[in-house]
Design goal:
EC 4.2.1.1, about 270 residues, metal-binding, 15 strands, signal, Carbonic Anhydrase II, two-stranded parallel sheet, 7 helices, binds 2-acetamido-2-deoxy-beta-D-glucopyranose, CA_dom, carbonate dehydratase activity, binds zinc ion, alpha+beta, 13-stranded mixed beta sheet
């Protein structure tokens, strides 16, 4: 047992010895997932800005029921991201984010430009109550501040498969193990995940941002088929990302869980 643990620890140790420095610093987010910075108190961090976090009735994430959720009509959602040689990859404390605007989401006569994509562990959405080890969100925003999100659940591969795009995103993950730092990704080729998105069904619902200010009126488009991540990559990402999933919100249209709970306390 002892020798197994020793051998298992070696790759992690050597990864840190060879880590490069971060390319620079960014301002980390003030909210987080721990104690008074966490989702139960996001409203308390700023009761004006974060009103919807505690009072919104269409909050994300939700438990997606595959029998009751809507499915996007095939061909009605054009998810398009241009391949780029590299992009800025930030550790915001609250999450790991790739800043890239070369893309768009066109649906319902609205074209939303891409703003960024980022990761959560564990997943925020659940499907028939099951959660997944990770989730990726592509956030799109128009000049008029209309927001839409494309989501992918990520599942552990029993065969060591990964998603090539994410191999390249996480290439220099070791550089940004501290919140408030950034590095560069490797070359980003989106053709694989775009064809994945177009090939499988897509859950859709009208929800919110899952982080402060929890703004509503956000259409979600989540692939019904998870993307692969392998155990080694998952553990490396989890070691940096730690924990950044908001708790499952109330059924769409129902009173916010925080409001219900606060009333019951009183
Ligand atoms: C979480 O956020 C709160 C409020 O900003 C802060 O006081 C606390 O130090 C943060 N905790 C961690 C672990 O980052
Ligand atoms: C709270 O949010 C409001 C509206 O976004 C902003 O004007 C104000 O400066 C914020 N207050 C604090 C203490 O950050
Ligand atoms: C995706 O965007 C690129 C660059 O704007 C454009 O040339 C291409 O036609 C778009 N593809 C689709 C399927 O919309
Ligand atoms: C991506 O967008 C940036 C900012 O608009 C631009 O400078 C860059 O040329 C674009 N890259 C590609 C490959 O389209
Ligand atoms: C998009 O706009 C066209 C032309 O204005 C209209 O005929 C069509 O119904 C609209 N489609 C949707 C989904 O709103
Ligand atoms: C989405 O939900 C918001 C409330 O959060 C509501 O105001 C809006 O009308 C809804 N949009 C659609 C298309 O159902
Ligand atoms: Zn997210």
């Amino acid at each position: 047992m002892k020798s197994f643990l020793f051998i298992a620890a070696l790759p992690l140790v050597s990864a840190h010895i060879h880590a490069r420095a971060a390319d620079g610093i960014v301002t980390p987010n003030s909210f987080n997932y721990t104690n008074l910075g966490g989702p139960l108190n996001w409203y308390g961090l700023n009761t004006t800005a974060n009103d919807a976090c505690a009072k919104g009735t269409h909050q994300s994430p939700i438990d997606i029921g595959t029998q009751t959720v809507d499915y996007a009509v095939a061909g009605s959602v054009n998810f398009n991201v241009t391949n780029v040689p590299s992009a800025k990859f930030e550790n915001l404390g609250s999450g790991l984010e790739v800043v890239i605007t070369n893309g768009s989401l066109a649906t319902n006569n609205i074209t939303y430009p891409l703003a960024q994509f980022h990761f959560h562990t564990p997943s925020e959405h659940r499907v028939n109550e099951e959660y997944f080890p990770m989730e990726c969100h592509f956030v799109f925003e128009t000049e008029a501040k209309q927001i839409a999100v494309v989501g992918f659940l990520m599942e552990l591969s029993p065969f060591g498969y990964t998603t090539p795009l994410f191999d390249s995103v996480f290439a220099h993950l070791d550089d940004i193990s501290n919140a408030g730092t950034y590095t560069e990704t490797g070359p980003l080729d989106f053709t694989g995940i775009i064809s994945h998105f177009n090939k499988f069904g897509v859950y859709t619902y009208n929800g919110s941002l899952t982080t402060p200010p929890c703004s509503e009126n956000v259409p979600w488009f989540i692939s019904t088929e998870p993307l692969w991540i392998n155990v080694q990559q998952y553990r490396a990402v989890k070691n940096v990302l730690k924990y950044n999933a908001r708790y499952t919100q109330d059924t769409l249209g129902q009173t916010n869980l925080l409001e219900v709970a606060a009333k019951e306390l009183n």
